[in-house]
Amino acid sequence: MDLEVSNSYHQQGVGIVGAGLVGCLAALAFNAKGFSVTLFEYRDDPSKTKNDNLRSINLAVSARGIRALKYVDEEMAERILEHIIPMKGRMIHDLDGNQTSQLYGLFGEAINSIDRSFLNECLLEEIRHTDIKVLFNHKLVAFEKNHGEDQTPKMTFIDTSEGDAASKTFEFDYIVGADGAHSQFRTQLQRTMRMNYSQEYIDMQYIELYIPPSESAKDDSKFLLNPNHLHIWPRTNHMLIALANKDGSFTCTFFSPWSVIEGITSTEQWISFFKKNFKDAYDLIGEARLATVYETHPRGSLLQVNVYPYHSPDGRAILLGDAAHSMVPFYGQGMNCGFEDVRTLMELIDEKGGDVLEAFRSYTEIRKADLDAICKLALDNYHEMSHKVTSLWYLTRKRIDSL
Ligand code: FAD
């Protein structure tokens, strides 16, 4: 169902913590309904700073995520979808570099590759054409639920752009915490209510790598691998994947248990490990780039976070996206689910005739079973792999089959 623009709930202020993927979509969705929205982000404005985030992941956008984007704004979704690269199958690379294509379906069914930072910037660009107020360099440090007689929640931020790191306080009718897996808003909210919370790290790390475009860049030949496949180098307990970017490059992710990466103690060992296990990728990435990756790129942890309930008892605050349900990435649904959170909440706001308190309460009730299920599937898949199958290839197949 498309957003009914006639539903306009003016003059109610919504403060959103975190201008990541989910916070941005939530801001656009509330704004489209006529709420006055302020979006707070810890980082600097990416349009004004060089992107030195070495953890820029390529995401698979699935039907779930696309439906939510279209729900918020059909035209915006079309603008964003212009930048995706459909992947119609997986391409398996064996140890000798032989490639085998496995199509997902008989009718061109595809999952879609997009760079996470780029998608985030697309959403921020959409926000620039609205009256949403965005405050970058604002780090949430405190939350108080009951302030004054009207019970308006208040949040305190440190403005890191100011020399003396000034602290500022804001009041809103409603607050959305969308500040990711390590959510400070969640920590603050937990002090004020009985919220169940669990966190589990899995024994797996990831590192980002990069395959450049072909130097003889002419039309399709700019891609060194087939762009319409998800490339997978499955090995016994580790794997490499690569997803295409529009500029002809590929973003790769190397996943392994921590013991594998920690057992590699020098750049030379890393390069020979890579050459042995991923010979064709080694040729495409190049030794110099591999050395830089080993020496400078961060190793990411993977964790699952679950909370219950998602909203505060007074109905003024709610957690969306990874702040509420960070999941391990082997189902490729973290962001897609976060986008679905936004659509579900907006549908409830309409259903409740603009009563946000009621919508927040109902959200917890109706969303829990679905979120529990998808987080469990993602984690079970990891456990199944690590205890029974010991093959990341098995895990990858299950992830892709689920999209
Ligand atoms: P985030 O993207 O973490 O954004 C949170 C924002 O809050 C950030 O901008 C942060 O700077 C800001 N913030 C944090 N603290 C504060 C504070 N105190 N004050 C103010 N702002 C703050 N998902 C998919 O759907 N498909 C995939 O294929 C997929 N692949 C993945 C692969 C890997 C390796 C990983 C790690 C994840 C993958 N995911 C995938 C998951 C996806 O990346 C996340 O689910 C998604 O980024 C969550 O978005 P979010 O907006 O909730 O949180």
UniProtKB/TrEMBL annotation:
Any Gene Ontology biological process: quinolinate biosynthetic process
InterPro entries (UniProt xref): FAD-bd (IPR002938), FAD/NAD-bd_sf (IPR036188), Kynurenine_monooxygenase (IPR027545)
Alphabetized SUPFAM superfamilies for the sequence: FAD/NAD(P)-binding domain (SSF51905)
Pathway info: Cofactor biosynthesis; NAD(+) biosynthesis; quinolinate from L-kynurenine: step 1/3
Entry cofactors: FAD
Keywords: FAD, Flavoprotein, Membrane, Mitochondrion, Mitochondrion outer membrane, Monooxygenase, NADP, Oxidoreductase, Pyridine nucleotide biosynthesis, Transmembrane, Transmembrane helix
Catalytic activity, as annotated: L-kynurenine + NADPH + O2 + H(+) = 3-hydroxy-L-kynurenine + NADP(+) + H2O
Gene Ontology cellular component terms for the protein in this record: mitochondrial outer membrane
Main location: mitochondrion
Residues annotated as domain FAD-binding: 14-349
EC number in record: 1.14.13.9
Protein localization: Mitochondrion outer membrane
Class in the EC hierarchy, top level: oxidoreductase
Gene Ontology MF, one: kynurenine 3-monooxygenase activity
Function: Catalyzes the hydroxylation of L-kynurenine (L-Kyn) to form 3-hydroxy-L-kynurenine (L-3OHKyn). Required for synthesis of quinolinic acid.
HAMAP family (alphabetical): Kynurenine_monooxygenase
Protein name: Kynurenine 3-monooxygenase
UniProt source species: Suhomyces tanzawaensis NRRL Y-17324
